[in-house]
Amino acid sequence: MSRDVERTILHVDMDAFYASVEQRDDPSIRGKPVIVGGAARRGVVSAASYEARTFGVRSAMSMGEAMRRCPHAIVVWPRHDHYASVSRQVFAIFHRFTPLVEGLSLDEAFLDVGASRALYGDGEAIAAQIKRAIRDEVGLTASAGVAPSKFVAKIASDLRKPDGLVVVHAGEVREFLAPLPIERMWGMGPKSAPRAHAAGYHTLGDLARADDERLARAFGEWGPEMARLARGEDERDVEPERDAKSIGAEETFDDDLRDEDAVATKLLSQSSRVAERMFLAGLAGRGVTVKLKYSDFTLKTRSMQLPEAVSDTTSIHRAARTLLERFEPSLLARKGVRLSGVSVSALVPIDEARTLFPDPGVERGRKLEAALASLRGRGAGVTRAALLGERGDDDDE
């Protein structure tokens, strides 16, 4: 976008999306603690209603721990196809106001509305209209942040949930960020935050004032970037969906993984999520990438091109396992993995992915993916046996 137009970025985030959809659809559970996730105690919480969150239940928590904290919670099996359908309604509303929509997951997106202000008003007015349309047409609430950059807009949207609207003007960015706790920084999880506090970084203002060299020693290459973000320096553009180069899923772990089989299981879960989204989008892809972030924030990736575009879990995970073997085993054991991710690129419409002599395994995988999607769309709780206890909420690319 031209810099002649003042940047106005919105981050819109649906409030407890999965759980809110379930409460909307079933009036008998409205106002009650609802947990979306597998019924097995070794399963993982995909989402929790705000009523459940008051008891300390959160996404990615084990179901066993969630039920200990909130034993009277109502557990609902996730309906991913249904959530995807509701998500399309929400994104259709976004596109009324700007073509510059970058979806981060089913329930959140960045919007660049700088060029839309002549038609719809300033950023705050546009955000309010979007929130109202979501409430009136979809029956759900969303929170929004309005700011000159992605980083600030995303933080702002999270400050007054649910149903919040926070506006940060260009001249207020550093003042807005400075007092916020260090945990507001992207990537600052339960493992890294104590290390940051021990090093004397307690707020984003502390990061903004820190020396890049010292930060690099403490956090690796991510350290100086954190300082730039904490100062409000974020020139990243909103990248519209039509320009998306890949579909991916990743997850940050509460405890570092040091066993290759454990990482492979996580990659299977992520491959399944990617395949599900690709099926819903009607896409297939030939490029597969695996990324691992180690406990010291070092990020490594491995990629490969497949002879045929794929869209099924088995094919994606097979490639991911091959790529996992290309990472240095000693790093995994010595440092531990704090994040893993799988993405598929070189995307084409699935109908264009057919070859004259298709791989029978790929064809079987596509048919299986279609069958699983159909069953989930009818509310059936189906997943692969290897994923029981693994399919939780993750961070979608």
TrEMBL record:
| Obligatory cofactor(s) | Mg(2+)
For site (Substrate discrimination), what residue positions does UniProt give?
A: Y18
Q: Which top-level group of life is the source organism from?
A: Bacteria
Question: GO annotations under biological process?
Answer: DNA repair; DNA-templated DNA replication; error-prone translesion synthesis; SOS response
Q: Which UniProt keywords apply?
A: Cytoplasm, DNA damage, DNA repair, DNA replication, DNA-binding, DNA-directed DNA polymerase, Magnesium, Metal-binding, Mutator protein, Nucleotidyltransferase, Transferase
Please give the catalytic activity noted in the UniProt record. Answer: DNA(n) + a 2'-deoxyribonucleoside 5'-triphosphate = DNA(n+1) + diphosphate
**What cellular-component terms does GO give this entry?**
cytosol
This entry's Enzyme Commission designation comes to: 2.7.7.7
Q: Mind telling me which InterPro entries this protein's record contains? A: DNA/RNA_pol_sf, DNA_pol_Y-fam_lit_finger_sf, DNA_pol_Y-fam_little_finger, DNA_polymerase-Y, DNApol_IV, PolY_HhH_motif, Rev_trsase/Diguanyl_cyclase, UmuC
Pfam entry (one): IMS_HHH
Q: Name one GO molecular function term.
A: magnesium ion binding
Record-listed Mg(2+) binding positions: D13, D107
Question: Where in this chain does the record put each UmuC domain?
Answer: 9-189
What's the subunit arrangement here?
Monomer.
Q: Report the HAMAP family cross-referenced here.
A: DNApol_IV
Q: What does this protein do?
A: Poorly processive, error-prone DNA polymerase involved in untargeted mutagenesis. Copies undamaged DNA at stalled replication forks, which arise in vivo from mismatched or misaligned primer ends. These misaligned primers can be extended by PolIV. Exhibits no 3'-5' exonuclease (proofreading) activity. May be involved in translesional synthesis, in conjunction with the beta clamp from PolIII.
Similarity annotation: Belongs to the DNA polymerase type-Y family.
Q: What is this protein called?
A: DNA polymerase IV
Organism expressing this protein natively:
Sandaracinus amylolyticus
